[in-house]
Amino acid sequence: MICKQNIVDVAEAQGSFYVIDLVTGTSDSIEAEQLRADFKIYLGVEDLSTVTVDELLNVIDPECPVARLTLKKSSKIVSSEIEMTPVAQEDSEAQQ
C-alpha cells in the first residue's frame, strides 16, 4: 500500500490531473517514472497502456464514500480551528 500512498500524496500536493498527465504522458522525469512504477505495482499490470484513465483516477480517489466523508469532515474541522485561534480572536477583538 506504500505505492498507493505515494500516488495519493503527489495527487494531494499537485492535483489529480497532474498525476494523470505524468503517468499517461511522455515525461521521462524521475517523478513520472516512480508514479508509473507505483501504478503498475498497485494495479498489478506490466503495461499501463492497458489501463483506462478512470482506473487510474480510482487509485487516486479515496477507497470508499466513508473515507471521502471523513476527509471532508476533517478538513472542515481543521479550517474552523485555524479561524478560531487565540491570535485571530485577539485581532478581531482589537479591531472592535
Descriptive key words:
mainly alpha, 96 residues, 2 domains
How many angstroms separate the termini? 51 Å
Q: What structural category do the secondary elements indicate?
A: mainly alpha
Number of domains: 2
Total number of strands: 0
Major sheet size, sense and barrel closure: none
* Overall 3D form: globular
Estimate percent helicity. Answer: over 70%
Strand and helix map with partners:
Layout: H1 2-14, H2 16-24, H3 30-43, H4 53-60, H5 65-83, H6 86-95
Helix pairs in contact: 1-2, 1-3, 2-3
Written description of the protein model:
The chain has helices at residues 2-14, 16-24, 30-43, 53-60, 65-83, 86-95. It has two domains: 1-61, no CATH class; 62-96. Helix 1 (2-14) crosses helix 2 and helix 1 packs across helix 3 (30-43). With 96 residues, the protein is an all-alpha fold. Residues 77-92 have low confidence and may be disordered.
Produce a short descriptive summary.
The chain has 6 helices and no strands.
